[in-house]
C-alpha cells in the first residue's frame, strides 16, 4: 500500500522510521523557538521529545527568541537538554508590539473588544504581537540572517516517531519550500477580513494561482463569480495607520470565500527566502497596513498558508505525513493517516471528484490525499 502512493516520492518521506542516516553534511538550518521564561517546563518537555526522536542524531542549533530577557535558570536548563549550540535573541520594538504608525489607543480598544467577545486570545496584546512577529518579521531578524532554513518548535509539543532522515536535506533535494504536518480549520471569528485582503492582493498584483490557491476556497472554481468586493482600491489607497477594516459579514461576501483551511504553524519547516522575497514582504505589508493584526486576531498560520496559496504551487509544499506530532490536543499520527488505508487511485477518486480543481494538484503532489478526511486521532480540513 505504501509503494502505491509513493512512487513519485522519496522513500524516507513516506516510509518514515528506518535506520538513522546522518552521514550527509548538515543543511544551513536552525531550530527556531519563541518562548517566555514561564514556559520553561513546557519547553523542556518539547526538547526532550525533539532531541530523542531527531536532534540527538543531527544536532541542529537552536535559536530562542523572546521579547523580554531569558533568565539564567531558563538558559541553563535548556542547555542541559541538548548537545547542540543554543543562542538567544531579543526581539526589539521594531518587530514586536503595536507599531508607532498605528493609532495605539484604537488598536488597544479593538483588542479589548475581542476580549469581551471571548475570541480566543483576542484580548491579549502579546498574542497579537506574537502572530505579527511570526507573520512579518522573524525572517528578517539579524539572528536568523545566516540561515536558509528553519524548523519551528514550541513549548508543549511532542514527536512520537523517530525522524531518521534530515528533512531539510530532503526538502532541498526535492526543491520544496514549505513543509507542514497538520492542516485544520481556523476559528472564523479571528480572521473575518483576512481573506478579502489576501485575495485583493492577488488581484491587484495580477498574480495567477499556480494550483494551490483553490485549496483555500470554499466554492468550487466553476461556480466562481467575479469578486465584486470593492477592496483593491481601498487597500491600495490605505495610508499606513488608517487601519480601517470594512464592516462586513464574511458569510455574505461575493466571489471567492475562504474555507478556513490553514497549515498549523506551530510545526513548520520552510525556506526563509520564501518570506524574504519582495512578493511575500509586500503581501505582509499590505496585510499589516489594514490593521488586521490588531483589529482582528490574525494568526501567522493562516497568513503563511494564504501566502503559499498566492505565491507557490502544490509541488513547492511538502506534507510530512510520516511525522508523528502533537501540539496540546491536536495530533497527526502516521499510523492513522488515510494514505496508509487506501490506495492512491481510490483517494484521487474519492477526494477529487468531490473537489474539482484539485485533481491536478493531487497528481502533482500527493499531499492532498489527506485533505478533508476524518482521521481517528488527527484533524484535517
Ligand atoms: P497557541 O499555540 O496558539 O496556543 O499559542 P502559544 O501560547 O503556544 O504561543 C505560540 C508561541 O509563541 C509559543 O512558542 C509561545 O511560547 C510564544 N509566545 C506567545 N506569546 C508570547 C509572548 O508574549 N512572549 C514570548 N516571548 N513568547 C510568546
Ligand atoms: Mn502553542
UniProtKB/TrEMBL annotation:
Molecular function terms, GO-annotated: alpha-1,2-mannosyltransferase activity
Domain of life: Eukaryota
GO biological process, one term: cell wall mannoprotein biosynthetic process
Keyword annotations of the record: Glycosyltransferase, Membrane, Transferase, Transmembrane, Transmembrane helix
Signal peptide: none
Family membership noted in the UniProt record: Belongs to the glycosyltransferase 15 family.
Designated name of the protein: Glycosyl transferase
Organism the protein comes from: Ascobolus immersus RN42
